[in-house]
Amino acid sequence: MHRFCPYQLGMVVTLLALAFLARNPCQATIADLPSMDRTVIKQKVMEAESGGGRLRRITGEILVAGKTKLTLRTEEEVIQEFSLVGTDLYLNGQPSSGEALYPVYPGRNIQACLYIDGEDRVKIVEAWYIGGEGKLVRLHPPDPDGYFSITLRALDTSRERRFLVSQELNEVVKGIPLGTCLYYQLNLNGEIGYILISQ
Predict the structure, then answer these.
(1) What span, in angstroms and rounded, lies between the C-alpha atoms of 149 and 166?
(2) DSSP for residue 1
(3) Which pLDDT value is given to residue 51?
(4) 130 pairs with which residues across the strands?
(5) 3-class secondary structure, 125
(6) Mind listing the domains of the chain with CATH numbers?
(7) Can you give the pTM of this predicted structure?
(8) How many CA atoms lie within 13 A of 59 on its CB side?
(9) How does strand 88-91 pair with strand 122-128?
(10) Of 17, 27, 13, 18, whose CA–CA distance to 182 is shortest?
């Protein structure tokens, strides 16, 4: 967790948005309490598996990406290069290209799940770089699996949304006072996996 003054927090969010807007028409999503919609991805995976067998999954963060290749650091900390020839790419649930998957902000790489067929070809890349700003209005007790959830209120509207929080941030969220403004990013599971606190 990092702490920023309100000005710095706003600048970070603005710079992230502008970096994507300058790069590609399919961008990272920074909006009013955005969340993940995996409908298109699930449909695409079902179609691919119905025609060619079950796809295996490799997850991690994208280190380098281009038109035809992608380098991923897996969750096991293994660095692998993959061909993107014939691959369907999605960024934040929308069709995209390899160039849009290039890391945008130092230390905050795009996360991805690669769906690979029996011949080791990458059929689908599901990439996510999605976050937003909100005010903490409620910390919910942990569920039976030990996951906390929090309710955030949008900064410019009365809209509220509840998010699961990655277990890695359990101690962090317990220490955040209600009413605190923060920036969050979601991980591949749709949980809040990164928080910037406004001081």
Answers:
(1) 9
(2) -
(3) 81
(4) 29
(5) strand
(6) 2-12+130-198 (2.40.50), 37-128 (2.40.50)
(7) 0.77
(8) 6
(9) parallel
(10) 13
Distance, in Å, from the CA atom of 98 to the CA atom of 86, rounded to the nearest integer, reads 12
Structure tokens, 97 = 């290209």
Q: How many helices (H) and strands (E) does the chain have?
A: 3, 14
Phi-psi region of 35 (alpha: psi -120 to 50; beta: other; left: phi over 0): beta
pLDDT at 107: 76
Question: Under the phi-then-psi rule, with left for phi > 0, alpha for psi from -120 to 50, and beta for the rest, what region is 146?
Answer: left
Which residue bears the tokens 């995209």?
96
First to last CA, the chain: 12
The pLDDT, as a whole number, for residue 52 is 78
- Show the CA angle centred on residue 66, arms to residues 88 and 101, nearest 5°: 65
Its sign, for the CA torsion 36, 2, 154, 175, is: positive
Q: What angle do CA 58, 97, 79 make, to 5 degrees?
A: 35
Tens-level pLDDT at each residue, the chain (199 residues): 555 454 444 444 444 443 433 333 334 444 478 888 899 999 999 999 998 789 999 999 999 999 999 999 999 999 999 999 999 999 999 999 999 987 667 778 899 999 999 999 999 999 999 989 999 999 999 999 999 999 999 998 889 999 999 999 999 999 999 999 999 999 999 999 999 997 6
Cβ contact 176:120 at 8 Å: no
